[in-house]
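Renewal narrative, Specific Aim 1. Our central claim is that a sequence can be written position by position from structural information alone. The example that follows is taken directly from our test logs and has not been curated for this report. It begins with the structure tokens describing the chain, in the order in which they were read.
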């Protein structure tokens, strides 16, 4: 089979020759229920000749997966290359060139773990089996058709930034949008339906946030984008709502969407905008990525650039009591409302004993104006006896300011397990604040970190078309993300215990504190109870109707995507319709799935 070579610098080309396209389970060929997707061990899995023919139909762009941890295992063990993989495991740059690797290690499922011994297993396992590095719409349609005809799990992937497991799937055939990186400047976009006339940018599916920032800056404008430079803009980020340092000024990323160029799962090419296929536009703008169709390009507003002032604040509990420390956190929490009201965006990471606020990002205000805002907070810290460090600087434009936020430029991946909640502004008023702080204090005492994002994500233009953003965003004062550190050398049982701690211990008090709220579907726990309400709120019913209209064959799947509850992975990791399964793996309370995977051996 002739395929695109996909050989990161640390993986020898010969590895591909050592990997078989078939996987053995026990002694025999698997028997698959008719309502389940095929796996490589099935008797009717496509032959190599069939894959060869498909590869030719997509212009030779098919890639067979080589697990990124392969250099750490026999028979392809290489000590130097393995060390490189281990040393860079939490760096985005290691995973971005891979057609199969994902940045949330839980969903790799220990398939080819670089931290296990050389004689440990290295299989394709939970990684996709094959990937098409798409460059044309026709290749996407051919891949969809092949997956449908062969009853193979279909996956959409870009960068691998995915905390919810959508970018992978056992036995899957993926399209890879990573190299679709065209950008187009539109000097005068005019749409009455979108209530917008002005500059816009059309970005292809593979464009990173940082690339889009650079392109906008060259034209003297800014776009609403994410904190992490290498997140794919057109994928789950904007489709899942997308918070930004500019959100308190320009709204969420989904609020900037003007139109989408879309490929539906039945092979149609559509424009989704407030004027055309408006239901699909509504769903794409906040209703979750990889669900209703495949975004080929997205067109977004290019907003005026603005000067930025950035402040940083750090302190610990050294020399003060725990009560005083949490009084300081309370003072900070109250302060964030006024800061966000003035157009600011704040990120803070705190534990039981230390607080790091970086950045306090404020557009359109001078150093003196920001100091005036922070003076009340700093006065309160002085009263509490807190020994703090406060720094402030200003920048003439957004791009320079963004480049000077160290915590954004050096983001590590795969280091934590996520949970959390959108916390309404009312929880930080004088009456509610003590209860809120006690919940945060208890979470910290249980060993979790709080990643506290404060903003005001209200709609900035009342004439703007509606979208599917979770309504809880509009009332939120904070996105409070709970974190437990990930252990690279943990056993499957220990991994599940970490996830269980988030699901069953850390997050329940937040749900009780804000029962009518929800959370950010891109940065959350994939085992979130009642995820339909938590991620989509009152929009879920309409989103499901749109899902059924545009993806009637249910080719697009995510366990927490709209309609995802109609499918589940069984004990073998096989994706099946729920009604077809005799036994469905229940999230986080059954180790059988992971144990079975760990028994698989490559032929």
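The sequence written for that structure reads:
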């Amino acid at each position: 089979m002739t395929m695109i070579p996909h050989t990161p610098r640390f993986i020898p080309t010969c590895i591909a020759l050592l990997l078989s396209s078939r996987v053995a389970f026990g002694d025999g060929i698997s028997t698959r229920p008719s309502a389940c997707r095929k796996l490589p061990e099935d008797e009717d899995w496509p032959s190599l000749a069939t894959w060869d023919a498909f590869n030719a139909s997509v212009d030779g762009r098919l890639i067979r997966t080589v697990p990124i941890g392969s250099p750490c295992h026999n028979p392809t063990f290489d000590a130097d290359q393995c060390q490189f993989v281990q040393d860079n495991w939490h760096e985005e740059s290691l995973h971005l060139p891979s057609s199969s690797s994902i940045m949330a290690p839980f969903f790799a499922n220990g398939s080819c773990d670089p931290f296990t011994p050389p004689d440990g297993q290295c299989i394709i396992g939970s990684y996709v089996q094959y990937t098409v590095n798409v460059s044309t719409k026709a290749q996407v349609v051919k891949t969809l058709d092949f997956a449908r005809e062969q009853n193979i799990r279909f996956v959409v992937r870009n960068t691998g930034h995915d905390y919810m497991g959508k970018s992978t799937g056992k036995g899957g055939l993926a399209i890879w949008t990573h190299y679709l990186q065209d950008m187009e400047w539109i000097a005068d976009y005019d749409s009455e339906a979108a209530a917008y006339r002005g500059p816009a940018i059309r970005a292809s599916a593979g464009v990173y946030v940082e690339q889009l920032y650079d392109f906008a800056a060259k034209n003297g404008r800014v776009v609403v984008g994410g904190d992490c430079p290498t997140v794919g803009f057109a994928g789950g980020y904007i489709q899942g709502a997308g918070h930004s340092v500019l959100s308190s000024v320009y709204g969420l990323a989904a609020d900037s969407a003007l139109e989408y160029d879309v490929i539906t799962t039945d092979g149609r090419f559509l424009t989704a905008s407030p004027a055309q296929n408006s239901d699909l536009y509504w769903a794409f703008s906040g209703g979750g990525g990889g669900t209703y169709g495949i975004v080929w390009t997205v067109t977004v507003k290019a907003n005026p650039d603005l000067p930025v002032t950035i402040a940083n604040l750090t302190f610990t509990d050294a020399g003060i009591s725990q009560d005083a420390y949490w009084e300081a956190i309370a003072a900070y929490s109250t302060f964030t409302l006024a800061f966000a009201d003035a157009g600011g965006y704040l990120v803070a990471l705190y534990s039981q004993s230390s607080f790091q606020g970086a950045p306090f990002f404020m557009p359109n205000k001078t150093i003196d104006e920001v100091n005036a805002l922070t003076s009340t907070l700093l006065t309160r810290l002085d009263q509490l006896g807190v020994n703090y460090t406060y720094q402030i600087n200003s920048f003439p434009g957004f791009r320079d300011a963004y480049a000077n936020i160290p915590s954004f430029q050096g983001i590590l991946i795969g280091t934590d397990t996520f949970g959390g909640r959108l916390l309404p502004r009312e929880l930080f008023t004088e009456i509610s604040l003590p209860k809120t702080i006690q919940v945060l204090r208890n979470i910290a005492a249980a060993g979790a970190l709080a990643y506290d994002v404060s903003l005001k994500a209200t709609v900035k233009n009342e004439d703007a078309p509606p979208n599917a953003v979770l309504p809880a965003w509009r009332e939120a004062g904070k996105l409070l993300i709970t974190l437990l550190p990930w252990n690279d050398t943990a056993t499957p049982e220990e991994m599940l215990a970490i996830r269980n701690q988030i699901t069953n211990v850390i997050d329940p008090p937040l749900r009780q504190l804000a029962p009518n709220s929800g959370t950010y579907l891109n940065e959350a726990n994939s085992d979130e109870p009642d995820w339909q309400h938590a991620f989509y709120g009152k929009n879920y019913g309409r989103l499901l109707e749109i899902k059924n209209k545009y993806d009637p064959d249910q080719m697009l799947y995510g366990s927490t995507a709209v309609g995802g509850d109609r499918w589940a992975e069984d004990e073998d990791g096989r994706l099946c319709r729920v009604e077809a399964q005799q036994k469905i793996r229940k999230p986080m309370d059954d180790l059988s799935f992971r144990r079975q995977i760990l028994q698989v051996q490559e032929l």
